[in-house]
């Protein structure tokens, strides 16, 4: 267990990298697609983030750490998603339903990370 403050940017970068790897596995090796693949990948990555944080620090994140970690993760992943959206616009402008579906796919990742990093209800 470490008494030092964890480097939240390292956790966020590792989690973004995990998104790529888990999505690659889910979508190519296991041949899962669509929204279910996104939810599965986001849930696995969020659970992994929570487990690694707890394993390395010996505790759940403090509320401020949770906010900063999810914000960094959402920002980094959001920049990548913005780049992907720009590439989609270069090919063909997606309609409103496509944009909403794209946003839902993105929002699943920070939302599930927020839930996975939540404090325990029994007062921990």
TrEMBL record:
Superkingdom of the organism of origin: Bacteria
PROSITE patterns named among the record's database cross-references: PROKAR_LIPOPROTEIN (PS51257)
Transmembrane annotation, as ranges: 12-30, 36-56, 68-90, 96-117
Keywords recorded for this protein, A-Z: Membrane, Transmembrane, Transmembrane helix
The name this protein goes by in its record: Uncharacterized protein
Native species: Pseudomonas linyingensis
């Amino acid at each position: 267990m470490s008494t030092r403050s964890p480097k939240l940017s390292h956790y966020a970068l590792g989690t973004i990298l995990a998104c790529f790897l888990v999505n690659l596995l889910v979508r190519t090796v296991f041949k899962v697609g669509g929204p279910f693949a996104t939810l599965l990948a986001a849930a696995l990555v969020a659970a992994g983030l929570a487990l690694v944080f707890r394993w390395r620090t010996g505790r759940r994140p403090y509320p401020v750490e949770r906010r900063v970690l999810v914000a960094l993760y959402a920002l980094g992943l959001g920049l990548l998603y913005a780049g992907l959206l720009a590439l989609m616009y270069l090919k063909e402008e997606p309609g409103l339903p496509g944009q909403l579906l794209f946003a839902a796919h993105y929002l699943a990742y920070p939302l599930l990370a927020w839930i996975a990093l939540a404090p325990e209800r029994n007062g921990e």
